[in-house]
Amino acid sequence: MVLTPVRIRGKRKAPSRIKSSKLRPNPSIDGNGPSPKKMKRSLSNVLATRSLRGRPTLQSLPAEVLEIIFLYSASLSLPRSSPIIGAKLSGRATLLRHFMWTFHDTWIDWLGIPVNCNTSRDDVGGDPRLQSEVFELPWVKIDFILQAQQTWADTHAKDRYIEHCLPKHDTEKNPLTHTSDHPIQGHKGEFNARQCFEADYEVVSSWEPVKDVECWAQCDVHPEFRAPRSLITGPWDEEQLRRLFWLRRAGWAFHWDGESVDWESRLECLRNAFIDAPVPSVLITNLLDLLQLGQGLPTDILQKERRRIEQRLEWGADDAAGREVLREVYSGTELCDESPLHRH
């Protein structure tokens, strides 16, 4: 009996027939012809092809990787090299970590330790150039600084004994009493950067002009730190005054004599703080040394500014506190005028 064949879809499918053309003749369908071999590429050809492919660039790296590079390179040129890189490194958390990283080597040994004029600071850690450059960045405001200090202390100084740097005696060794809601005695743990700062700022702001006290400061910046020129020269708003106070409290003012601050900046500070100020600044007299402020000014310029102080005092438009400030500035610059640096 002859069986009837049943066609099943997909079974024993006949080879497709390709239409022949002049460029492509009919292929052999008898199965006896040689099968085409897989084309092999040379190594040089493969490498040449790969070299044409796009390589990953620095700005294509994840923000987490870029942040590590940013911290370890300590280069402020990295975020400035590309708008994309700058955007990836502009998060507040990244900026805080970079600020803490910059000041870590100084704070790890000195945060919360008062110093005076005789304290040796030859072994202070940190990079003064980097600290100076970072402090000039536009987002480094007093709130940012205090947040960075608080975050750093919560990690690295939880059980550290913290002491305020306000002077305990005047220059005649008489004890001083400071009134503040915040305890300014030393304490261990529970460091609050903002409360400590506000308490110190409140006390110093209440002093009379040129308060006669012992040297007072901490060592929160490297001794060779250079303050931003705009903070030295003024004019100052409230936020800038607080930043200047933070620097004075951090120990910067001990090291701004000599060549660290040029005489043009000193002159501008003298004018903006006292001579041309609507109200002569009492606070500045307690942040900056008036003798150092007038040091190095050319004799003719110094004498001219002193004559302007005389004229303002004669005019009599200032209140009692303002006149006292002007008299103190006049006396301080008089000592500068008599110093060997101004004699010809």
What would you note in describing this structure?
With 344 residues, the chain is mainly α. The protein has 3 domains: 30 residues, no CATH class; 143 residues, no CATH class; 89 residues. The chain is built from 15 helices and 2 strands. Strands 1-2 form a two-stranded antiparallel sheet. Helix 5 crosses helix 7 and helix 14 packs antiparallel against helix 15. The longest helix is centred in the first third of the chain and has 19 residues. It is elongated and about 140 Å long. It starts with 42 loop residues before the first helix and ends in a 6-residue tail after the last helix.
Task: Give the topology, please.
Elements: H1 43-51, H2 63-73, H3 77-80, H4 83-88, H5 92-110, H6 128-135, H7 142-156, E1 161-162, E2 187-188, H8 193-205, H9 229-233, H10 238-249, H11 263-275, H12 282-287, H13 290-294, H14 299-315, H15 320-338
Antiparallel strand pairs: 1-2
Give the topology string: H per helix, E per strand. Answer: HHHHHHHEEHHHHHHHH
Largest sheet: 2 strands, antiparallel
The CA-CA distance between the termini, in Å, is: 138 Å
* Helix fraction bin: 40-55%
Structural class by sheet pairing and helices = mainly alpha
| Proportion in β-strands | under 5%
- Count of beta strands: 2
Mean pLDDT score = 84
Based on CA atoms alone, the radius of gyration comes out at 36 Å
Shape, please? elongated
Number of helical elements? 15
For the largest sheet, list the strands in their spatial order: 1-2
> What are the segments in which pLDDT stays under 50 over at least 5 consecutive residues?
339-344
Total domain modules: 3
Biased composition (Basic residues): 9-22
Region (Disordered): 9-43
